[in-house]
Amino acid sequence: MDKYSDEVATTKKSCANIRSRLKILNTHLGHYALSTLSPLVIANYRNYRLDKSGKNPDKAVKTETVRKELSVLNSVIKQCLTEWQIHIPNGNPLDKVKRPPKGKSRTRRLESTNGLSEEQLALNQALKSKSIIGDILIFALETGMRRSEITKIERQHIDLTKHTIELLDTENGDGRVVPLTPKAIEIIKKQKVSGTKLFDIRPDSVGQALRRLREKCGIKNLTFHDLTYLPNQEQCKFGCDYS
Questions:
Q1: What is the pLDDT of residues 52-63, one digit of tens each?
Q2: Could you give the number of structural domains in the chain?
Q3: CB-based contact 99:67 (threshold 8 Å)
Q4: pTM for this predicted structure
Q5: Do the beta carbons of residue 168 and residue 154 sit within 8 Å?
Q6: Could you tell me if 118 and 92 lie in one domain?
């Protein structure tokens, strides 16, 4: 796993996430030799992480987290079998381990409770704290862009004449062009020019800011991903097609 971290993970876009999962896997499985890493050992690790036996002193994690950890472990073992030509007597043990079921996709969106809009509650709180998170929340709602995409925006890729942003490094690896609504353009023009990035903030800092904002407003079970749905086509005045 250390070798994979140094030689393979560094070539991946999600290097930080892979290394984080490798660290957890190494803690629990790093003392095993490949030849003794049986399906039973991996199944026990899966059950421990999900806390099926109630013996995990740490907090049980979600099924999707375990799925991703096992996916990284699978990639490590495949690398050993193919590129590194390391023989494992009984083949890949993960082929005989049942993965946790895939979680349901989230359908949570901003709502209104007792006549109060969660969007307005969050934005009012952001204005009080004078945090950049307010602008980022509006930008996400207007463009449907992910947190990682928003924090990577460079000014050179913004075209205010065509009302678009060109994204070169997206989650699925393909570039795309995002149309801008008038409100999104207003947010862009509002930002102070300092460096090449539009928003001078890290993705994890956006997540932390949203969590603090959510707690202060009393909003429950809302993640940044819940904001990234496309706006109504009517909102765009420049003929942008959101279909």
A1: 766 766 678 889
A2: 2
A3: yes
A4: 0.56
A5: no
A6: no
